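Morning, I've got a small favour to ask if you have a moment. I owe you a coffee for this, so here goes:

…
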Amino acid sequence: IAVQHRCYTDKVRLYDTDRKKVLYKDIEWVATSDDKDSLAVLARNDRRGYINRFTGELVIPEIYTRAWVFSEGLAAVEKDGRLLFIDHEGKVVIDKGFQVYHNNPRYAFKNGYCMIQSSETGRMGLIDKSGNWALNPEYDNLFNNEGFWQLEKDGCTGLLTADLDEMFPIENTDITVNDGVIEVRHADHIARRYDYDGRLLVDVVIDEVENMLYETTELRQNMDEEDYY
């Protein structure tokens, strides 16, 4: 199944390359998930539904105002102003009165949890696949960072494992996770490096080395201009 764009126009269609048949005309876009889920989001006539990306079959009709790709078997949709989560049959699995916030453009499950902004507190937390709070919504921001959950609150940052166990408390000024190394700039402004199990690798990270320039008592003569300094 191919998404074809007509040159110099906004027209998009869905085409079955095996049967050489146009399946849908004048669609807006199609989005597939990172984990290669069989269902893809179809946008048409300002509505969203889901198609089988291997057969082109419309599995879930276009009844949603907004829809996100499937992740770990569930997909977030917006209907009648509510944020819901559905399964592959279109059955509503999570309906907890959540709202869609445009500053959180991606509602996706990672390791069994999804980032949600509370309609009561306006802060971020994590829900499980039952829609219950696994991490209470009390954070200014949170995101998945290389499998870890990074938290931000009141200008400080912390880090949780994939299972929500605390690795670094929310008392640090910065945390970077990259290439198997976690660099933490602690509250004392000293940066240290750890491995993914939290073992200390580098006790003090030196960010930069510079030459120190300072005055001396030496008298030097500039031979070109006959002055001294």
Summary: The longest strand covers residues 21-27. The CA atoms of residues 146 and 179 lie 9 Å apart.
